[in-house]
Design brief:
Strand order of the largest sheet: 6-5-14-15-16-13-18-17
Number of strands: 19
Shape: globular
Distance between the termini: 15 Å
Structural class: alpha/beta
Helix content: 25-40%
Oligomer: single chain
Largest sheet: 8 strands, mixed
């Protein structure tokens, strides 16, 4: 099917929405993005673009732009929380030459995608707050000011609280995971090189990696907690609470935490993968379809994969309904596996002192020393996937 002139409305101007706009408009569609913010501006913090997501960036012709505004990761270092001693190391340079791994500020990736979308003729409408979506033969997006925006296809890339997901699936209450996380950006006070470090402690862990020219660091610190009420990561917290929660960690972590001036705290909730992704004229993408916990660093990468698959499936089928059905069939199994893997990953970093932790860390050390390729190879199913050739 030719997408030439097809009128498509994308809800959400984040990574998934802008990537979808680019992939669809590149195939001839007339794409309008509805973004609720007043500007596409610097928000959020760090992202890890792994090889599977990078392949979409490359296919869009944006790898050089990404490389110029990010740090190419060399290693992932798993460390003991008390003294910072390395338990195991994943050498990312052992990945095949075409499988780069980048640490990037979310705002920089958004800007790269936004600039490319504008240059490609995508219409981006700001201050478009969606009230609800009316699916149907010609679906309509109803804004909070009462305006209606109809389109041949509506794509919901509007995140955790997607209006389109609600229209297709109803309301489903998420379950609290028993974990919260802080997120902050600080100067690179420790001089950390091009690696992601995971400082593992009892009931908590901290991830840090450099961004941009290496002068700033992204911090994400997760802690087990019994109760939490609200979802979303825009809740500001007192940095003293973060420092107190990780007071038992080593001097490197304490040095980083002492540099935190502003920090956001959010509760981690487990959402089911949407039962229904599309209805023939509407489709979900990214977190709207399959929200994932941050313990595999795959949220942005899955959204990039979705965006490419969506456009590819629409372009290779005779009608939109068949294309959207093929998109859901192609993406659901992989996204379910990523979500399940991320959900089961956190405990590995939160082991309490005792025989089990000792044995687990010993196994990691031994594996990293005698079979480093095998340790990294456990991610072949994830990093080795190329959505630009798979469909």
């Amino acid at each position: 099917m030719s997408l030439l002139g097809l009128d498509i409305c994308v809800i959400g101007g984040g990574i998934g929405g802008l990537a979808a706009a680019l992939t669809l408009s590149a195939r001839g569609a007339q794409v309008t993005v509805l973004e609720q913010a007043e500007a596409i501006r610097e928000v959020g913090a760090g992202l890890q673009i792994s090889p599977n997501g990078l392949r979409v960036i490359e296919a869009l012709g944006l790898r050089e732009d990404l490389a110029a505004r990010s740090v190419r990761g060399r290693t992932v270092s798993l460390r003991n929380h008390r003294n910072g001693a390395e338990v195991a190391r994943l050498d990312l340079y052992r990945l095949p030459p075409d499988q780069g791994y980048f640490f990037v500020h979310r705002a920089d990736l958004i800007d790269i995608l936004y600039t490319a979308a504008q240059a490609q003729g995508v219409k981006i409408r700001l201050l478009q707050r969606v009230d609800h979506v009316m699916p149907g033969p010609r679906p309509s997006v109803v804004l909070q000011n009462g305006d209606h925006r109809g389109a041949a296809l509506v794509i919901g890339a509007d995140g955790l609280h997607s209006k389109l997901r609600t229209a297709l699936n109803g309301v489903a209450a998420p379950g609290f995971t028993g974990q919260v996380a802080w997120r902050a950006v600080i100067p690179n006070v420790t001089g950390q090189g091009a690696e992601a470090q995971v400082h593992m402690g009892p009931g908590r862990h901290l991830v840090c990696y450099p961004m941009r020219d290496g002068s700033i660091m992204n911090l994400v610190a997760a802690q087990e907690r019994h109760a939490w009420v609200d979802e979303g990561w825009h809740h500001e917290d007192d940095p003293a609470n973060l420092r107190a929660a990780f007071a038992g960690f080593g001097p490197q972590v304490r040095q980083m935490l002492n540099a935190v001036e502003t920090v956001n705290l959010w509760g981690l909730f487990r959402h089911p993968v949407a039962a229904r992704w599309q209805d023939g004229t509407c489709a979900l993408l990214g977190d709207a379809a399959h929200p994932t916990l941050p313990f595999m660093a795959q949220g942005a990468n899955m959204a990039l994969e979705d965006a490419w698959a969506l456009a590819d499936c629409l372009a290779s089928h005779d009608d939109p309904a068949a294309g959207l059905a093929a998109y859901e069939a192609a993406r659901r199994p992989r996204c379910q596996k990523v979500v399940a893997t991320a959900t089961g990953n956190a405990w590995k970093y939160h082991l309490r002192p005792g025989p089990f932790r000792f044995a687990a860390h010993a196994a990691l050390r031994l594996g990293a020393r005698i079979a480093p390729d095998r340790l990294l190879g456990q991610f072949d199913w994830l990093y080795g996937y190329d959505v630009t050739r798979a469909l």
